[in-house]
Amino acid sequence: MSEEVRLHRKEALGMDKIVEAYIKQMKLSAGLNTQRVFAAWDACSGAGPWTLRRYYRGGKLYITLSSSVMRSQLFLQKDLLVEKMNAFLAQDELFINDNKTVGFIQELILK
Question: Mind listing the pLDDT tens digit for each residue in 22-71?
Fold first, then answer.
């Protein structure tokens, strides 16, 4: 009766696809992406020790620095820093690009 019903072997998935699906299903991507943006700031700017506060919303990364000298130096490199951070995020395996609320950095605001 059920001779034609066969169990089909499912395609094996890599851990990267499983983790990405889990993050999307549990709706963790916005928080994780925000943390990856902050990690990109630390890695690309070199100003982690002088960073007092970080806030990311709507493509804008707000950074409060404790050193006015560091802020002045980084202000001159804002466009380059945004490019470097977005390149860093593009290579980051944990950064999920299709999140509508937290995506790539569009503007850097130094305070």
Answer: 887 787 888 889 999 999 999 999 999 999 999 999 899 999 999 999 99
Burial readout 10-47 (b: 16 or more C-beta within 10 A, e: otherwise) = eeeeeeeeeebeebeeeeebeeebbebbbbbbeebbeb
Does 1 fall in a domain? Answer: no
Domain enclosing residue 38, as ranges:
15-110
Number of domains the chain contains: 1
Residue positions counted in the chain: 111
Cα distance between residue 103 and residue 89, in whole Å: 9
Q: Is the residue at 6 inside a domain? A: no
| Contact (CB, 8 A) for 65 and 110 | yes
